């Protein structure tokens, strides 16, 4: 039993010695670690090459389409509506010269006829007067030699009476005849002297009758309201059979193709417009529906004028934009569920005014410009922090006037705890 225990102990010792030997051999034969210098790799960044370009500043605003020329149709005569033009319906197009509204003309037609009769009567009275004047002149022409003859006869008989050749009664009769002829001639002259004022009075009466006729004819013309231009019906406020009075609003129309939009520009944005008025008036404007402002502009226009007074509440200045008449004829938009061509008053639109031009400047995305108006650039594997002069921040863009050069590699990836000279690597 002791021999078996001893045998087992020897075997365990042999196995343990063999394991120690193998372990020592492995430690002795292991490869030795080599000392290497630590290499700084730098942070990985994405960059893009900055390129100078020429561009125009854009001013964006919103406004509502308005007719440039809108007329309110008002009754200038009273009466019953007896007719409406076939195109006088809200939203319908009408042509210049077409009749839109007709008021009962019968009363005004009778008034015209009455004035014509009055003119005829005044003309007849004036003609009668002229004939009487001619008669007076003819009578005077006869009375002048008659008076001279009576005077000559009275002078002769007066001489004979002084010589007692004739009786005194004969001389007195001749004198009475002479005086009667003088009185008759004087009466004719007095009547002729009054003809000037009487003629003016009759002529004034005739003129008044003619003026009244013109007024009556004008009133008759006003019973038909005709379109002064090609346009559209904006609002209809009357119906056939309705009685209207002078001054009553009948409807509203606006001229075809002449549309404006008034937008309000903040005072700070006016520096992006040219300072010269002549240049400002030629500024191009792009117009789109407000809900489609990010797409291609559908219409074009130009800045027509800038109003003189600023809104004190909003500190904005109203700008009037004239929309060009020549627009894409096949453009169709939807409004209130109906398909309509082109713009209509009341549409809410977004406008882009193409303003002042800048040359050799830079346009970067907003995240490429960091706090303090600096840009991170990469040169020779190091980060360069460049201060820049910012012209404008607009939406997600930053316009830079100075501080960059074409070809500068600008970091566009996020970079925290950045410092000048920091090692960086450019992502391929």
Give me the secondary-structure topology.
Layout: H1 2-29, E1 43-45, E2 47-49, E3 53-67, E4 70-74, E5 79-84, E6 93-94, E7 99-103, H2 106-162, H3 168-221, E8 224-226, E9 231-236, E10 243-244, E11 249-255, E12 259-266, H4 277-280, E13 284-289, E14 299-306, E15 316-323, E16 332-335, E17 338-341, E18 348-365, E19 369-370, E20 374-379, E21 382-387, E22 389-394, E23 397-402, E24 409-411, E25 424-426
Parallel strand pairs: 1-25
Antiparallel strand pairs: 2-24, 3-12, 3-18, 4-11, 5-7, 5-10, 6-9, 7-8, 9-11, 12-15, 13-14, 13-18, 14-15, 16-17, 18-23, 19-20, 20-21, 20-24, 22-23
Helix pairs in contact: 2-3
Through-space gap between termini: 79 Å
How much helix is in the residues?
Answer: 25-40%
Q: Main β-sheet: number of strands, strand sense, barrel status?
A: 6 strands, antiparallel, barrel
Number of helical segments? 4
- How many individual β-strands? 25
| Mean of pLDDT | 84
Radius of gyration, Cα only, in angstroms?
54 Å
Strand order of the largest sheet: 3-12-15-14-13-18
Order of helical and strand elements? HEEEEEEEHHEEEEEHEEEEEEEEEEEEE
Strand composition percent: 25-35%
Q: What coarse outline follows from CA principal-axis ratios?
A: rod-shaped
Low-pLDDT runs: 329-341
Determine the structural class based on helices, strands and strand pairing: alpha+beta
């Amino acid at each position: 039993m002791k021999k078996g225990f001893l045998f087992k102990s020897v075997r365990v010792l042999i196995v343990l010695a063999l394991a120690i030997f193998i372990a020592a051999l492995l430690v002795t034969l292991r490869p030795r670690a080599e000392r290497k210098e630590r290499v700084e790799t730098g942070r990985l960044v994405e960059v893009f090459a900055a390129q100078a370009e020429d561009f125009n500043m854009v001013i964006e605003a919103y406004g509502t389409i308005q007719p440039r020329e809108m007329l309110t149709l008002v009754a200038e005569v009273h009466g019953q509506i007896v007719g409406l033009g076939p195109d006088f319906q809200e939203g319908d197009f009408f042509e210049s010269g077409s009749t839109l509204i007709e008021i009962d003309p019968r009363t005004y037609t009778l008034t015209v006829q009455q004035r014509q009769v009055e003119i005829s009567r005044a003309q007849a009275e004036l003609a009668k007067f002229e004939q009487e004047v001619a008669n007076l002149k003819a009578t005077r022409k006869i009375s002048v030699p008659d008076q001279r003859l009576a005077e000559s006869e009275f002078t002769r008989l007066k001489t004979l009476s002084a010589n007692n050749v004739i009786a005194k009664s004969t001389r007195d009769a001749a004198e009475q005849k002479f005086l009667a002829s003088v009185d008759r001639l004087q009466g004719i002259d007095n009547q002729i002297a009054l003809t000037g004022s009487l003629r003016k009075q009759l002529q004034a009466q005739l003129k008044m009758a003619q003026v009244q006729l013109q007024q009556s004819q004008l009133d008759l013309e006003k019973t038909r309201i005709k379109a002064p231009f090609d346009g559209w019906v904006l609002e209809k406020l009357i119906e056939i059979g309705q009685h209207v009075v002078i001054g009553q609003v009948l409807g509203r129309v606006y001229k075809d193709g002449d549309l404006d939009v008034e937008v309000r520009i903040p005072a700070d944005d006016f520096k992006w417009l040219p300072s010269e008025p002549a240049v400002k008036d030629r500024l191009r404007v792009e117009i789109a529906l407000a809900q489609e402002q990010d797409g291609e502009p559908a219409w074009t226009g130009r800045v027509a004028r800038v109003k003189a007074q600023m809104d004190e509440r909003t500190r904005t200045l109203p700008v009037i934009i004239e929309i060009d008449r020549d627009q894409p004829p096949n453009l169709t938009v939807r409004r209130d569920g109906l398909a309509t061509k082109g713009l209509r008053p009341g549409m809410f639109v977004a406008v882009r005014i193409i303003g002042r031009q800048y040359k050799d400047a830079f346009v970067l995305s907003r995240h490429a410009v960091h706090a303090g108006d600096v840009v991170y650039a990469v040169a020779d594997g190091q980060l360069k922090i460049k201060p820049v002069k910012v012209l404008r921040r607009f939406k997600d863009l930053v316009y830079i006037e100075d501080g960059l050069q074409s070809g500068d590699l600008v970091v566009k990836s996020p970079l925290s705890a950045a410092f000048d000279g920091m090692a960086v690597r450019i992502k391929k």
